[in-house]
Amino acid sequence: MLGLLIGELMSGFIPVADLRSKPIVPAHAKPLENPAGKRPRWLVAPAATGQNYQRLKGLVRDLRLHTVCESAACPNVGDCWNRLSATFMILGNVCTRRCGFCAVQKGPPETVDYDEPRRVADAIAQMGLRHAVVTSVNRDDRSDGGAELFAMTIRAIRARLPDCTVEVLVPDFQGSRSAMDIVLDARPNILNHNIETVPRLYRTVRVGSDYGRSLTMLRHASSARPAIPTKSGIMLGLGETDAEIYDILGDLREHGVEILTVGQYLRPSPDHLAIQKYYTPEEFERIREHGRKLGFRHVESGALVRSSYHADGGVAALAGGGSAD
Fold it and tell me: pTM of the entire structure?
């Protein structure tokens, strides 16, 4: 998921994104240390090295593209890029919201680049991908929240690679159903929108977002295009309770979500929200089993799970292929 970040975890293992945004957490509210203490010794990710990693890094640079893998400092960048898997981030590299967990730069938005969809499709073709994932920053400056460029990117990929499945991780479009319909009309194979955290923590964790609004958008996507599976993800370790976790899973199922990702929040810098708890592998497994019992068709749950990590597994689980009607 876009907000699940590397922070102190991977110092010395993979490069950390350029965290040039101003502090997000108010100084009077920011703890000096993570209440969770030091990271567990088992919580490590592969180093960002290897031939495919270097190849993809050069390709992204040459085509003037952004990936959430780099911009959000994802801990799985080494693993994913060496498997030639990446999540492309359109609509610039600057977000109009200031969520307390996210490493993506904040500030005035960049000019929309209408050639970007073609370059994303070009990169996917050069990588030889069979499943592509596209996300974006929040663009609250635009009436459609950037939906137009999502649709253009889906169509550009399909025109270049008809057999490539396409997954999109979209913002909430400020609750605009017409904006969501623009994306759905381009027929992505999977429509993902992350709920991120429990309602009680929204005012701190997801500044400018609304829990109910996100659920409504997921329900609309599921109802408007039932053939397109909906997906959502949450991050743990921000102070939520077990009861709240199970409640949010129930809410997602009630709103038609079929694919679920659950991962550990990792602090990207001292200016971001502190880690309240590190969840154990056993706890992640219990959450996965609970999700399966609730009826999710595919559940990924683990410390390093992110919304697009092994995303092709969700397609395989749903027997996806080609375009969704």
Answer: 0.80
